[in-house]
Amino acid sequence: MTLSIRRASREDAPTLAVIELLTAPEFATFLLEDLFEDTSVGASLSTIYRRGGTDSHEWSWVANRDGDDVGAIGAYPVTLVQPSSDTGEAAERLAYFDGIREKMRADAFHISRLGVLEPFRRMGIARQLINTACESAGAHGETRVTLFVWEDNTDAVALYNALGFEQIDSVFIPAHPRMLRHGRSLLMSRPL
Asked: In b/e form, how buried is each residue of 134-150, taking b as 16+ CB within 10 angstroms?
């Protein structure tokens, strides 16, 4: 097995969207489904990843195994996050996650998404993605790396604990008819 991890490019936007939708579709589906007429969640995500900014290819990495993209991570300095300019339905959907935004730490390099396709899990790929992304931390004054994880995702919690992350807070995501998941999400942190 030959595994390589590279910084994502604009051309990786569709890959980033597919990996997110196959591994953790909860937030993207809630935020984007039926928001734009005749545009799928995947197409909307791909457009977001193609543009610049913290939630784009510019702060993403892709894991490739033997020529196939099998995982991805997105992480960025929280200080670079710009307030949303969305209005109407988009703003209402974003407001559902205010509890998460309120818990974000200004001194953090935040892992916002991590996914490894099912057949490639338990091979150390997620660990390598995390380590690669964290190599970019600290340039904007960050003193810690943070992430949110569903409390019942015991495999992921165990991985993060093994990598030195500890729970420092949590937020409850309430049930909603459009939300694929709900429950407690843990905010985990490790010092740089």
From this structure: bebbeeeebebbbbbbb
- For each of the domains in the chain, give its residue range(s) and CATH number, in order of start: 3-191 (3.40.630.30)
Residues 6+ apart with CB under 8 A from 10: 50, 57
Q: Is the pTM of this model over 0.70?
A: yes
Pairing mode of beta strands 60-65, 68-77? antiparallel
Instruction: Classify residue 122 as left (phi > 0), alpha (psi -120 to 50) or beta.
Output: left
**40-53 pLDDT per residue, tens:** 999 999 999 999 89
Edge-to-edge strand list for the sheet holding 108-116: 3-7, 60-65, 68-77, 108-116, 144-150, 183-191, 166-173
In single-letter form, the type of residue at position 141 comes to G
Model confidence band, residue 76 (pLDDT cutoffs 50, 70, 90): very high
The H helix count followed by the E strand count for the chain is: 7, 7
Burial of residue 175 (CB within 10 Å: 0-12, 13-18, 19+) is: exposed
